[in-house]
Write a structure and sequence with these properties.
three-stranded antiparallel β-sheet; 10 helices; about 240 residues; elongated; mainly alpha
């Protein structure tokens, strides 16, 4: 009887351990899969950067976050406390899981390519992104990159300003607002730089610091816009917050 009881006890213990393993796998695997938009746990481990990580990817992350105003530290490729705090702020603004870990979803939102996803494919189906990139390409191709981001930022600043329409499309198609709408250049196909500039602006980078107007002093014919105080000059364009 004692031997039988011992066998039953061992069997019960094995079943308990198996049940615990099953529940752990069932819980953690969906967590990683859902959190990183379908990327397997192994892929997730390969692409994430987190506190303690070092290398070129961390430098890219820091540079992006610094451009957008989230990060104030050095671009040193060391994922420390400041970088983690900046990542969390970026994640919060972009409705991502706020954990300070840069996995596939966060990298994609930053426009940084991974082994499983390239930045050129991220978000290009968005009608707002596409329209914003068209304005950037039509108005700013040939301008320095910061100047292209600045054009997109002006559109977004207008959306937030009570003097203008409340949507990106509304701002862009407002009568007389942008020359590219009047002359048809809005219908040109944007290049990858225009898309990336639009993404950077959408992610919070504003080289104009809140401006809602811009123009080229050498080509502008509108006398009123030339009376506005100039806040920033980038490339051939000057930017203003208005009166």
């Amino acid at each position: 009887m004692k031997r039988k009881a011992w066998v039953l006890y061992i069997s019960w213990l094995v079943l308990c351990v198996a049940a615990i393993i099953f529940l752990w796998v069932s819980y953690t695997e969906p967590f990683f899969t859902e959190k990183q938009n379908g990327v397997s746990y192994e892929d997730y481990r390969q692409v994430l950067s987190k506190r303690g990580s070092t290398g070129s990817e961390v430098k890219q992350i820091q540079q992006k976050l610094k451009n957008w105003g989230y990060y104030k530290g050095n671009i040193d490729g060391i994922f420390g406390k400041q970088t983690e705090a900046a990542v969390k702020a970026f994640q919060k603004k972009n409705d991502l899981s706020v954990d300070g870990i840069v996995g596939t979803a966060t990298l994609a939102a930053m426009g940084i390519s991974t082994s499983s996803q390239t930045s050129s494919s991220v978000g290009t189906s968005s009608s707002d992104l596409n329209l914003l990139a068209r304005v950037v390409y039509g108005e700013g191709r040939g301008e320095p990159y910061a100047g292209q981001v600045a054009i997109a930022a002006v559109v977004l600043n207008r959306v937030e300003d009570s003097r203008f329409p409340k949507t990106i499309a509304g701002v862009i198609y407002q009568s007389g607002a942008f020359d590219v709408v009047a002359d048809g250049q809005i219908n040109l196909s944007p290049n990858s730089t225009a898309y990336q500039a639009a993404r950077d602006a959408l992610n919070g980078w504003d080289p104009t610091y809140g401006c809602v107007y811009y123009y080229n002093p050498k080509t502008a014919t509108n006398k009123w816009i030339k009376t506005l105080p100039i806040s920033v000059t980038i490339g051939k364009h000057v930017f203003s917050k208005g009166k």
